[in-house]
Design brief:
By secondary structure, the chain is an alpha/beta fold. The chain has one domain: Vaccinia Virus protein VP39 (Rossmann fold, 3-Layer(aba) Sandwich), CATH 3.40.50. Helices cover 30% and strands 20% of the residues. A seven-stranded mixed sheet has the order 3-2-1-4-5-7-6, sandwiched between helices. Strand 2, helix 3 and strand 3 form a beta-alpha-beta unit. It is globular, with a radius of gyration of 19 Å. The protein binds S-adenosylmethionine. The site of S-adenosylmethionine (SAM) has 19 residues, from strand 2, helix 4 and helix 7.
Length: 216
């Protein structure tokens, strides 16, 4: 039996996408450090970065709450970057942008040093298998050093995870690190939206662990 496919009926959802997305940072040169002006026109506004931002719910809420600040999400998955664009568009947020890139590369080589007022690392993949433990970025001194170098003098690094094991390991590494120190992070310290993954995990009854670091 012969099957015929009518290709005119097949649509590619990505074919409709603009490239790059209107709020996407697409550097001319992927091998040189960016300037703050390459990210946002009003480069003097405080810059916050959400690493592994997922669908951008956190970014959208932060962008609305703090129109005077700039928010950049870094995310490797195209579909999630598209959602960040769609959210920024529907809420008319010119202060929310997206960079589709690996976070390790972005923090080490591309993002402008000494320019980030707050860096958020929320619910990163916990890599529970022993053979993948080296992928836990919070347990790598070189990753922490890159984060440190991106922050302004009074900048902060905020980390949340539901994985007690990941958190304990990260806390141990942090204790042996002489360039960051922890500060209190009470629940109501400031407006801080719950992320998509956090909501899912809280609904499942899991407990979140949080760490707030400043330059030592
Ligand atoms: C568990 S999800 C958390 C998403 C979001 N932060 C939240 O809390 O809802 C982890 C996200 O980080 C992204 N991600 C993981 N490793 C990454 C990497 N090396 N570079 C860029 N994005 C990464 C994943 O694609 C995913 O969207």
């Amino acid at each position: 039996m012969e099957f015929k496919i009518d290709c005119s009926k097949i649509t590619d959802p990505m074919a409709e996408d603009p490239f790059p997305f209107p709020n996407e940072i697409y550097p001319q040169d992927w091998f040189s450090e960016l300037n703050s002006e390459d990210l946002f026109e009003n480069a003097y506004a405080p810059l916050e970065i959400d690493l592994g931002c997922g669908d951008g719910t956190f970014l959208e809420q932060m962008g609305k709450e703090y129109p005077e600040r700039n928010f950049l999400g870094v995310e490797r998955l195209l579909g999630r970057c598209r959602k960040v664009w769609k959210k920024a568009e529907r809420s008319n947020l010119s202060n929310v942008k997206i960079l589709r890139l690996d976070t390790n590369y972005a923090v080490k080589w591309l993002l402008p040093k000494g320019s980030v007022s707050r860096l958020h690392f929320l619910c990163p993949d916990p890599w529970p298998k022993k053979k993948h433990a080296s992928r836990r970025q919070m347990c790598r001194m070189d990753f922490l050093r890159s984060i440190h170098d991106l922050l302004t003098d009074d900048g902060e690094f905020l980390f949340k995870t539901d994985s007690a094991e990941y958190f304990e390991e990260a806390a141990e590494v942090q204790e042996s690190c002489d360039f960051f120190r922890t500060v209190d992070w009470p629940e109501e310290a400031f407006f801080y939206p719950i992320t998509d993954f956090e909501k899912q995990w809280l609904d499942e009854g899991r407990i979140m662990n949080r760490m707030r670091l400043v330059r030592a």
